[in-house]
Amino acid sequence: EAGKIAYGLGFKLYAAGGMIRDVMLGQNSIDIDLVVEGDGIKLATAMSEAFQVKIRKYQQFGTAQVIFSEDLTIDIATARVEFYAYPAALPQVESSSLHQDLYRRDFTINAMAVCLNDKKFGSIVDFFDGRDDLDQGLIRILHNLSFIEDPIRILRAIRFEQRYGFEIEKQTLNFLKEAVRQEVLAKVTPERIWEELKHILVEKEASRMLRRLEELKVWPFIFPGVNYWEVDPVLRDLAGSVDLIKEWGFWVPTEKWLPYLIALLHWSNPETARQICERYHLSKRQTEKALAALYGWRETVAMIWKSPEDVKLSQLAKQLMTMPRESYPMLLAILEEDWIKDRFRQLLNTIMDSKPSINGKYIKSLGYRPGPVFKETLEALWQERLDGNIVNEAEEKDFVRK
Ligand code: ATP
């Protein structure tokens, strides 16, 4: 449809980038990345009218986004064409602007396009042999200065390599190492690094990617002061642990990257961890979670290891309450052995099951004004329940009234 609208405006339209790569790999892709030879903003405006959807325009870049829903936006970029030369029948002029757009991209596998206009609909544009690299499983840059031009591509190369189980092509790897040696990453803003890092930390193969960052000597630019090898064993086990926590129903869908960040900071000294959080502008709440996990994991793990006779359930629950949920996967990974992991699961279940059945509403109904005392009372009640001193709702109410 977009192709037809573009055609009507006299523009050539292409789908490009990661979407083509994923389709060729037989995978679904949600990102839609369009390149128009013509005027991207005009096309977006026409699409917004045709589909009755909102758009966002970025005049200075000639790009726009068409927003179909929260999960589905289409990016439209303008590949500039000299208008006097268009739409004259000079295919080399038209494709040279597409060529320029694709040449600015990171890797050959991300630099293919498919024509969406009527006549050539479906034909593949592959100036840099991306298809071959895709078949051979190679990550290859488009020109020698690529990593210098945009050092973020170093992280992207590692991400795609590990995501698809590909290899960074030999020359490309040399250029990557050389760029790292020249410390090009020191010049990138933490904001840009964090943007890419977040993508890494939510990937299925996040641990392998982190390990590769270390191998290729990128790690110190990303996590200065953090010793990778101290956290390697835990990171390796983290994806599995996240899955277990999900399976057990203790997963809180939140920032998916946070369990990884917590895990990779847990051996650092608090000052280093705080600096990393600050560098990447984590919120106060996120920073507190990372630090709480760092301070609390040893004690928590020690308590889980103790035999149930030696530690009161209420004590254990209290300790666990100091740990953010996002640290549970890390705790599991540290616990290592299956039987003790299972004990952890049982403990969590027991703790959740003994949650008092009354809540703040009941306290309010007694005429109290909401305040910190509510939380304290409910926590104290929970403790009593855990230790079996209170067993039913009537006793709970009694306790609260007192
Ligand atoms: P993912 O599957 O992770 O979304 P993607 O390839 O779609 O991967 P995006 O970050 O959405 O990644 O980028 C879309 C396209 O834009 C890429 O396929 C690539 O062509 C281009 N691109 C993105 N970042 C860069 C960069 N730093 N340098 C050059 N080209 C880039």
Q: Tell me which ligands are bound.
A: adenosine-5'-triphosphate
Shape: globular
N- and C-termini, Cα separation:
69 Å
Strand content: 5-15%
Overall mean pLDDT stands at 90
What's the β-strand tally? Answer: 9
Number of helices: 22
What fraction, in percent, of the residue positions are helical?
A: 55-70%
Neighbour order of strands in the largest sheet: 3-4-5-2-1-6-7
Point out poorly predicted stretches: 82-94
Radius of gyration: 27 Å
Structural class: alpha+beta
Q: Major β-sheet, in short? A: 7 strands, mixed
Main features:
55% helix; alpha+beta; binds adenosine-5'-triphosphate; 7-stranded mixed β-sheet; two-stranded parallel sheet; 402 residues
Plain-language structure description:
This protein is an alpha+beta fold and 402 residues long. It is 55% helix and 9% strand. The protein has a seven-stranded mixed sheet. The protein has a two-stranded parallel sheet with strand order 8-9. Helix 7 (152-164) packs parallel to helix 9 (190-201) and helix 12 (228-236) crosses helix 14. The N and C termini lie far apart (69 Å). The model is unreliable at 82-94 (pLDDT under 50). The structure holds adenosine-5'-triphosphate (ATP). The site of adenosine-5'-triphosphate (ATP) has 13 residues, from helix 7. Residues 17-18, 31, 33, 105-106, 110-111, 150, 152-153, 156, 199 line the site of adenosine-5'-triphosphate (ATP).
